[in-house]
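Help wanted!
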Amino acid sequence: MAKKTDARAEKVIKKLVGLGNEAVREVAAGENPSVEIPLRALSNINFNEKRQIIELGNAKQERYLFKVGMARKFMQTFLVASACKDLLEEGKTTSIRDLYYITKHTLGQSRANTFEEQDESDPIIEDLEVTIDSLREELNLHASNKGAAVGDLTIVDSGDVIDLRRMGSGGWSVPSIVEENVIQFRRGSKAKYVLLVEKDAVWRRLNEDRYWKKHECILVHGGGMVARGLRRFLYRLHHELDLPVYVVVDNDPWGLYIYSVVKQGSINLAYESVRMAIPKARFLGLSSFDREGFDLPPNVTIKLNDQDRRRGEQMLKYPWFEKKQWQKEIQQLLKAGVKLELEALSAKGISFISEKYLPQKIEAKQWLV
Amino acid sequence: MAKKTDARAEKVIKKLVGLGNEAVREVAAGENPSVEIPLRALSNINFNEKRQIIELGNAKQERYLFKVGMARKFMQTFLVASACKDLLEEGKTTSIRDLYYITKHTLGQSRANTFEEQDESDPIIEDLEVTIDSLREELNLHASNKGAAVGDLTIVDSGDVIDLRRMGSGGWSVPSIVEENVIQFRRGSKAKYVLLVEKDAVWRRLNEDRYWKKHECILVHGGGMVARGLRRFLYRLHHELDLPVYVVVDNDPWGLYIYSVVKQGSINLAYESVRMAIPKARFLGLSSFDREGFDLPPNVTIKLNDQDRRRGEQMLKYPWFEKKQWQKEIQQLLKAGVKLELEALSAKGISFISEKYLPQKIEAKQWLV
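Answered by r_m:
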C-alpha cells in the first residue's frame, strides 16, 4: 500500500486545492467562478509528427458556476475533486464506480441528486485529469486489473517483493495503478526486450514453453485491447529499463489498432499519450505476409467482414501508417481478403510460435515501426 | 509446469486410449463402431436433494460412425480425443481455441474441413469430458485466467512457491487449471475462512485495507460470474483445508445466481457439480434486508428491470431456494423493487465494508445457506 501521503500525492493534492482556492478567490472578488478545462474533442486532437504521438491541442473551455447548463457540471467537478483529495489524504484508492457512489447524494432538501448515473461522473473525472494534468491513477482511481506479466524482472508492488521469474502458470496480474509510488523495478534484470502478445491463451503457451527464460525477456499480455495500466507499465519498462517493446497481435484491423494504441495513443485518451505512448514499439506480427512466409495451411484463415474492410481502409489514411512499408502491409491484408489469428500458428505445431515463429522474426529483424 | 506425464495424466490417457481401442475392436468385429455419451440436456438434469447439487442423470446417447448425421461428429470426437492424448503425452496445455486450430484440417483430397468453426469443436470437448468422466482441465485444456486471490496461504504453482500474503496490490491471478498436479497448498495457513466477493473493485478495497490479514482469511474475487477454474479452486480450499466459504455479491438476481452456481452448480455444467459445487457455501450478502439493517441512504438503489423481476420469480421456484429463509430473502428483493450494488456501501464511507459490514455480519452469523 502507498504511504498515507508521499511527495507525489502532495503534489496532486496541491493542484486540487489550488483549483478550489481559485474558485473561492473568484467568489470573494464578486466574479463568476470558473474552471478552465482543456477541450477533449476530435477538433482539438492532432498527430504530433515530431514526437510521433496523438496529442491534445491547446483549445480550452471555461466552465462557469453561474451559467445555464454549466452550474451542475461545475458543482460535480468540485465534488469529484474533493473526493479525490480525500482519497489522496487517506492514502486509499478506489474504483470509478465507487467514486460515483461516494459522491452521489441528494442535494439539501431537494429531490435532485448530485449524480444520477455513473455516465455523468466518468467524464467529470476525465475533465479533472486534463485540468490539473494528472492521470486518474495519480488521483488514486483504479480500474480492473487487466493483463499479466512474467519474465526476467523483480518488482516491488506495494512493498511486496515479487519475482516475475517465479509466478507459476498464472503470472503477475498487472494492476491499473502502476505509478512509481506503488510499483518499483528492482535492478538485476537481464531482459533484452519486452514481448507484448494480444491474447492470454498465446501468452500461456509462451509461458509454459518458458520462452521468456530461453530468450531473456519480459512476457506480457493485455487480454485483448491494452488497458491504461498495462500501457503505463510498458511505457515504464521501455523508458526506465531501456527495453525495446515488440508487439504480436492477430493479423486483422483490430490487431493493428491495438498496436497503434500502444505506439501512438488513442483519440479518446489523447491527453495521456505523453505518458503512455511508445512511438518506437515494434510490430512483429502477425503480418499479412506471414501466411506465405511461414507456409501456413489455407484453411486457417477467416474472411474479412465489411467492418474489417472499413477499418482497414481507414487505417491506410492514418498519418502514422503513411510510411510505404505500412501501406504495403495493410494493402496486402485487404487484397488477401482474409485475417489470421495467432492461434492459427498452432496448425504448424503447438509450440511453433515459441520455437520457430518468434525467434526467426526477431533474429531476422522482421518488424515494422 | 507439469511433468511430462504423471499418474494423473496416465489415467486420462488410458481412458482416451480405451475409447479408441473399443472402436477398433468394433471395426474388427464387423460392428458399427460407436461411443456412448451421457446426455447433456435439460431432460437429463436433476437436483440431488441428498447431496444438494445439480447433477447429470443416467440417460445416454450412442454416437455411431455409420449413421446419417452422426459420422461427422463421430470423426470429430476421435480427432479431439487424439489431440488431447498428444497434449497429455507432451505435458502441454492449450486453449480450446487453439485446439480448434490444431484439429482443423482439410479431409484428404476433398474440400471438406474437419471443423468449420470453433462452435463445432467446443461441444465435442464437452462430450468427451462426460464420456470419459474427466474435466477439460484434466484433458490439459485451459480457459483464460479469471479472478484473483490473496490471503493467509502459500501455494505451489507449477513448481513456483507463491506466498499469497505477499502479492502486492494485484494478487495472484487464478488460472483455469488448478488441479493437484499444477497447484498444491502448503501447510501452515492460519486462514479461518474463504471470502469470495463478486467484484474486483471491492476485492481491491478489502486487499488495500488488509482485511485478510486482520481477519485471517483468504480473499478471492471472480470478476463477475465465477469461472470454472475459480470454482474448482474454492472447492479445493473448502475440502482440503476444511474452510467455510462466504459469498458476497450484489443484491440482485444476478448476484443470487452467482451464489447459486458456487453452491449447487449450474445447469449447463451439471456434469461438473460433483467436483465444483459447494453446497455449504454461505451467502453473507448483500441481503435485501441490508438496506434497512445498515441504514443505507435511499438514493444508492437501482430499480429492478423486467429481466430482474423475471429472474427473481424463477429463483423463487428453484428447489435449492425453497427454504423459508430464502423465500423471504427473494420475496423482499421483489417487494422492494430495487437492487443494490456492493459499491453502494461506500456511501457510508470508503472502508465501511471492511470495517463494519463484513465483521458485523460474520460476528452475528448473519448468513443464509
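OP: Thanks! One thing I noticed: The radius of gyration of chain A is 23 Å.
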